[in-house]
From TrEMBL:
The active site is at 183. One of its GO terms (molecular function) is NAD binding. Residues 177-299 form the 3-hydroxyisobutyrate dehydrogenase-like NAD-binding domain. It comes from the Eukaryota. Residues 15-173 form the 6-phosphogluconate dehydrogenase NADP-binding domain. This is 6-phosphogluconate dehydrogenase family protein. It holds the Pfam family NAD_binding_11. Keywords: NAD, Oxidoreductase.
């Protein structure tokens, strides 16, 4: 049976697949289930899917099986190599099972070049691929307020809007890979904000200020930011539970800092991003790879002898 694109998406007919049920992925998949869509999920550790199964999700035994039983398959994975394996691996990857007309939506923060490769491979099979990394952390995922940064075919992205609107607000950036390029730029900006926020808080404390009062005093001025709103109180309360892992920030910043010249485009010099990557790498070296990105303040504190 051909999948429904461009037939309108409906809760009664459109079959959804989901792979990647960590902190972010589980919250996003839960929102689609709660909105009335049927989901088939795959998990390398099946026990991690029990919550979604309790909400009505069905468990498949391979990415290929998810593709075969779905019209749209979402992925929310850790690293580009995970995406390559789950999507493209012969015989067991999503694309090997996906029917013509099916759509893969990759929410992973991955590499723009890989997104272009997946788009091309999907088109060869008569399918479609959209790179749609997100920003907004675990709170945005839970509340359906993610910023979704979409690249690929514009008509396909528009067609997906009933699903994407459940998850957040989508901005179409252009062709395949543009969503990933936007996410890298987003992470460069977020990383710089976290460095500044961490240093400001450490300085305020050393100067004898109440750090919570410091945040309240400056949040309405030029120093205020969404980073401060999302993470400031967590940092004051030493709540370093992950919405996004510190090790993933190293990966994301690395894709910007370590990019090589491609297709005649010059390398971008990013000294601030390089410093952010080094500091987040320090978090990983300290054994804090699985802490949230707000844990960057611990690196600044260690530098200052705390």
């Amino acid at each position: 049976m051909n999948t429904p694109f461009p037939k309108p998406i409906t809760k009664s007919e459109t079959r959804i697949g989901w792979i990647g049920i960590g902190v972010m992925g589980s919250a996003m998949a839960s929102r689609l289930l709660s909105a009335g869509y049927s989901l088939t999920v795959y998990a390398r550790t099946p026990s991690k899917s029990l919550h979604l199964q309790s909400l009505g999700a069905r468990l498949a035994d391979s990415p290929s099986a998810v593709g075969k039983s779905s019209d749209v398959v979402f992925t929310m994975l850790g690293h580009p190599q995970d995406v390559r394996q789950i999507v493209l691996e012969n015989d067991v990857g999503i694309l090997s099972g996906l029917n013509p007309g099916g759509v893969i939506v990759d929410h992973t923060s991955s590499h723009p070049v890989l997104s272009k490769q997946i788009f091309a491979a999907a088109r060869e099979k008569g399918c479609w691929a959209v790179d749609a990394p997100v920003s907004g952390g675990d709170i945005g995922a839970r509340d359906g307020k993610l910023a979704i940064l979409a690249g690929g075919d514009g008509e396909v992205v528009n067609w997906l809007s009933p699903l994407l609107d459940v998850l957040g607000r989508t901005t179409y950036l252009g062709g395949a890979g543009c969503g990933q390029s936007c996410k890298i730029a987003n992470q460069i900006t977020v990383g710089a904000n976290l460095v500044g926020l961490s240093e400001g808080m450490v300085f305020a404390e050393r100067a004898g200020l109440d750090v919570g009062q410091f945040l309240e005093a400056v949040r309405g001025g030029a120093a205020g930011s969404m980073v401060m709103e999302l993470f400031g109180e967590r940092m004051v309360g030493r709540d370093f539970r992950a919405g996004g892992f510190a090790e993933y920030m190293v990966k994301d910043l690395g894709m910007g800092v370590d990019v090589v010249e491609e297709e005649g485009e010059g390398v971008v010099v990013l000294p601030g991003a390089a410093l952010s990557k080094q500091l987040f790498s320090g978090m990983v070296a300290n054994g804090d790879a699985k802490l949230g990105t707000q844990g960057l303040i611990t690196v600044i504190e260690r530098i200052n002898g705390k």
